[in-house]
Automatic annotation (TrEMBL):
Subunit structure as annotated in this protein's UniProt entry: Homodimer.
Protein name: Kynureninase
Entry EC no(s): 3.7.1.3
Protein's UniProt keywords contain Hydrolase: yes
Known role: Catalyzes the cleavage of L-kynurenine (L-Kyn) and L-3-hydroxykynurenine (L-3OHKyn) into anthranilic acid (AA) and 3-hydroxyanthranilic acid (3-OHAA), respectively.
Alphabetized Pfam families for the sequence: KYNU_C
Species of origin: Stenotrophomonas daejeonensis
GO CC field: cytoplasm
GO process annotations (BP): anthranilate metabolic process; L-kynurenine catabolic process; L-tryptophan catabolic process to kynurenine; NAD+ biosynthetic process; quinolinate biosynthetic process
Residue positions binding pyridoxal 5'-phosphate: 105-106, 133-136, 218, 221, 243, 274, 302
Catalytic reaction equation(s): L-kynurenine + H2O = anthranilate + L-alanine + H(+); 3-hydroxy-L-kynurenine + H2O = 3-hydroxyanthranilate + L-alanine + H(+)
Gene: kynU
Coiled coil regions in record: none
Matches recorded under NCBIfam families: kynureninase
């Protein structure tokens, strides 16, 4: 145990890390002349050094040739969304035809529910987790009302049943068994944003589909954090954003997955726009809508090129590392953090996130002993020392060591600052 706590051990782990050079590909915010210990990749991922050149390339083309930029060169804007498609498919374990970068997460969630939440009098309900991220709750409730149904009976929320406010697979299974015949859509997160819990998406998909319900996932906290196999898992759809673990920059264009089994289904209801029209005939500008094959058929507008550009730089790094290696490092980093919290900080911090590595990603949610005032004081102390986590009311600090750029040394700094604050 003592070895785990020593700076020499952390330094050895960092030196032996096969992904250590990735950190140099990022701009790390500074604090008092040193790198911050940045644990907020779950909120806004850091800027890849390559992002500026990607944005600059667009600005330069715009300045030099303006409208011709739509058609000129290998990165022409007409198909700019396709520059990220294949790498994105690799990150989420999908076929290229199943993914598209478009809009933002909440918009994609609404668009997907237009197609995959098709309530009937006999089957009107959406089943989701209690305590979901607000946008998911708002989107679901507004869809239920939009179709003339009643959220008080047709929005089914599965309550946490475990000690730390996490939800067991048993509770999900029981809820789907109990309500299944009334459920039109199961909407579930891949990683719970508050607790950091990872869910078994294969099992949830199987249970929901066995009841005849559609399945959609919000993967905001999963993409780039845990390995995904969306094609094989086979939900109907998934949505996610790119500014968290995918380092696409503030407000980055989001992601969307539609399973291949729907790729050719022109009969699905959808809210259409010209960019979802079959590419080969799009510029005939005919009045009838013919959807492009796959997820791209849900696009509305021509691609927001400046909003996509930084993502290209980040995806190059994901391709270089690969999700299996990132996950391996992530398990080691978060395991190290957990061991130190348990050994040294257990009087101050209680780990809310499940202890089983397969039930969590990189994030640990840490409840501060003594309640909100103590929690805020610790949080502000950490900030003043250049150790950045994020705060969740009323008393939780989330610390997310991301394998792309965090080090074991960052974890030691976090532990040392909590100890200094607590006088340990
Ligand atoms: C971050 C996050 C969002 C954000 O939605 P935007 O449309 O990108 O603002 C939505 N849902 C979950 C679960 C998130 O974690």
């Amino acid at each position: 145990m003592n070895e785990l706590l020593s700076p020499a051990h952390a330094a050895a782990l960092d030196a032996a890390d096969p992904l250590r050079q990735l950190r140099d590909q990022f701009l790390i915010p500074q604090h008092d002349g040193a790198d911050q210990a940045y644990f907020v990749g779950n909120s806004l991922g850091l800027q890849p050094r390559g992002a500026r050149a990607m944005v600059q390339e667009v600005l330069d083309l715009w300045a030099r040739i303006a409208v011709e930029g739509h058609f000129t060169g290998p990165t022409h804007w007409m198909n700019y969304h396709r520059l990220v498609r294949d790498a994105l498919a690799r990150v989420v374990g999908a076929l290229p035809v199943e993914v598209v970068a478009m809009n933002t997460l909440s918009v994609n969630l609404q668009l997907m529910m237009v197609s995959f939440y098709r309530p009937t009098a006999a089957r009107p309900a959406i089943l989701m987790e209690a305590g979901a991220f607000p946008t998911d709750r708002h989107a679901v409730e507004s869809q239920i009302r939009f179709h003339g149904f009643d959220p008080s009976t047709d929005l089914i929320e599965v309550q946490p049943d475990e000690a730390n406010g996490t939800i067991s697979m048993g509770a999900i299974e029981r809820a789907i068994a109990e309500h299944g015949k009334r459920v039109a859509l199961v909407l579930w997160p891949g990683v719970q944003y508050r607790s950091g819990q990872v869910f078994d998406l294969d099992a949830i998909t199987r249970l929901a589909r066995a009841q005849g319900a559609n399945v959609g996932f919000d993967l905001a906290h999963s993409v780039g954090n845990v390995p995904l196999t969306l094609h094989d898992t086979a939900p109907d759809f998934a949505v996610w954003c790119h500014y968290k673990y995918l380092n696409g920059g503030p407000g980055a264009v989001a992601g969307c997955f539609v399973h291949e089994r729907h790729a050719r289904d022109a009969s699905l209801p959808r809210f259409a726009g010209w960019w979802g029209h079959e590419q080969a005939t799009r510029f005939q500008m005919a009045p009838e809508f013919v959807p492009e094959l796959g997820a791209e058929g849900w696009q509305l507008s021509n691609p927001p090129v400046l909003g996509l550009a930084p993502l290209r730089a980040s995806l190059e790094l994901f391709d270089r590392a690969g999700m299996p290696a990132l996950r391996a490092k992530s398990l080691q980093l978060t395991g190290h953090l957990e061991a130190l919290v348990l050994a040294r900080l257990s009087n101050v911090l209680q780990i809310v996130t499940p202890t089983e590595p397969e039930r969590r990603g990189c994030q640990l949610s840490l409840r501060v002993a003594g309640g909100r005032a103590q929690g805020r004081a610790l949080f502000e102390h950490l900030q003043s020392k250049g150790v950045l986590g994020d705060w969740r009311e009323p008393d939780v600090i989330r610390i997310s060591p991301t394998p792309m750029y965090n080090r074991h040394d960052d974890i030691l700094r976090f532990v040392a600052e909590v100890e200094a604050w607590a006088g340990l």
